[in-house]
Amino acid sequence: MRFSAFFLLVASPIACVYAQSSVPPAPQSGPDQPGPAAQAAAPQVAQQVSEAESLIAKADWKAAETKLAAWLATHPDDARALFDSGYAADAQNKAEAAEGFYGRAVKADPKSFESHLSLGLLLARLGKLDEAHPELAAATQLDSGDAGPALKARAWRALAQIDRETDPAQASADLLEALKLSPETPRDTLLAAQLAEAVNQLDAAEAAYRRVLAKDAKNPDANAGLGHVLIAQKKYPEAETFVRSALDQSPDDLTLTAELATALAAQDKGEALPLLQRLHQAHPGDENVTRMLAEVLTEAGETSDSDQLYSALLATHPRDAGLLIAHGQNLVRQQRYQEAFLAFQKATEFAPTDGDAWSGLAFAASKINQPSAALHALTVRSKFLPDNASTYFLWATSYDTLHDRVAAISYYHHFLEAAAGKFPDQEWQARQRLLLLEKK
Question: Residues near 277 by Cβ (< 8 Å), separated by ≥ 6?
Answer without folding.
Answer: 293
